[in-house]
Design goal:
The chain is mainly beta. It has two domains: 23-48 and 195-310, no CATH class; 53-177, no CATH class. The protein contains three helices and 21 strands. It has helices at residues 2-22, 111-115, 245-248; strands spanning 34-35, 68-72, 74-78, 82-86, 94-96, 100-101, 104-105, 119-125, 135-139, 145-149, 152-153, 175-177, 206-211, 215-220, 227-229, 233-234, 237-238, 270-272, 278-282, 285-286, 308-310. The strands form nine sheets. It has a four-stranded mixed sheet with strand order 1-18-19-20, with no helix packed on it. A hairpin with a 5-residue loop joins strand 9 (135-139) and strand 10. The longest helix is centred in the first third of the chain and has 21 residues, at 2-22. Residues 28-55, 182-210 are annotated as: Disordered. It comes from Streptomyces albipurpureus. This is SCO0930 family lipoprotein. InterPro entries: Lipoprotein_repeat, SCO0930-like.
Length: 322
């Protein structure tokens, strides 16, 4: 009996050791490592849950399901994102990372299409700044035709309520405004680029800069400040930012270790969130950006609610009260 009990305890201890090692030490040949430890909310299917931003049914009207044409497309110069595509009414068009461009395929149906209304292919025409040959269409599962740009299916966002809104940008780390070639519109991409060219943007996926107020802080590849949420935990990895929270605090998408600069590699793993979104961590702490930061160098998220703070290269909170 004692032999059996000792063996059982040894197996349990080994299992705990494996999990602990995975979140707190380098993963060797693994690019990022991967953890799905704990959750603040039950898991949702990747295709029709949090994987498209956790925004279905929230601000999305049933009418949002019906595909509407874009009319005469236009290219708008966004101070945050450079050139972005809009429809004839000035509403931003978006693309979904879970779709594919080659071959074109939409993976946003049902509730997803309520939050992200499909742009119909019919009745759409090109505009200066958009190569007409980049426009196309894809047949959806219901047989309808959806507009594509550069092979990527196009959507609007139900929570954009007026021309010029870009509330869908970065939602869930997988929804992005479309550039004229169908690629993601991002700060520093194309003409106009970042709103503040005096702030250098490091090409590394994650790096650091010296902020005059906060000292060393982590920034993403676009120069935007990276934050942590005090209500999250590192072990077990849990997130308390779900649903509408992700609109204000988009997750930092997984980053290749080799594309970082000056960032702690220990505990640099990917968090497989319960909502299907993959999130980068430092020292196992989930990372976010802030939608209220509109240009490189902004730190508008610092101290928000007494729970959101910029982080050091070691994943420590900057300026948080003890």
């Amino acid at each position: 009996m004692n032999t059996w009990r000792n063996a059982s305890l040894a197996v349990t201890a080994a299992a705990v050791l494996v999990l602990t090692t995975a979140c707190g030490q380098d993963k060797g040949n693994d690019q990022n490592g991967s953890q799905s430890v704990g959750a603040a909310s039950p898991a949702q299917p990747a295709a029709n849950g949090g994987a498209y931003g956790n925004d279905y049914g929230s601000g999305a009207s049933p009418q949002g399901v019906a595909a509407k044409p874009a009319g005469q497309l236009a290219v708008r110069q966004s101070p945050e994102l450079g050139k972005i595509v809009t429809d004839s009414a000035g509403f931003t068009l978006y693309r979904f990372d879970n779709d594919t461009a080659s071959p074109p395929k939409s993976n946003c149906d049902g509730d997803c299409a309520k939050a992200w209304p499909v742009v119909a292919a019919a009745g759409t025409s090109s505009a200066p700044g958009i190569d007409a040959s980049a426009l196309g269409e894809v047949t959806r599962t219901d047989g309808s035709k959806q507009l594509t740009i550069g092979g990527w299916p196009m959507y609007r966002f139900a929570k954009d309520t007026k021309a010029g809104d870009i509330k869908g940008q970065g939602v869930g780390g997988i929804w992005f405004a479309s550039a004229p070639d169908g690629k993601k519109a991002q700060a520093g991409a194309g003409d106009g680029g970042a709103a503040n060219p005096s702030q250098p943007v490091d090409p590394a996926g994650l790096s650091t800069r010296q902020d005059p107020k906060l000292g060393e802080i982590v920034i993403d590849k676009n120069g935007m400040t990276v934050y942590r949420f005090k209500k999250d935990s590192a072990w077990p990895m849990k997130t308390a930012c779900t649903g509408d929270c992700l609109q204000k605090w988009p997750v930092v998408a997984p980053v290749d270790k080799n594309s970082t600069k000056g960032i702690l590699k220990k505990g640099f793993v990917t968090f497989n969130r319960p909502d299907g979104i993959k999130q980068q961590t430092i020292d196992c702490w989930p990372l976010y950006t802030f939608s209220g930061d509109t240009k490189p160098g902004d730190i508008n998220g610092q101290g928000v609610g007494g729970t959101w703070f910029a982080v050091t290269s070691q994943g420590k909170l900057v300026g948080a009260p003890k």
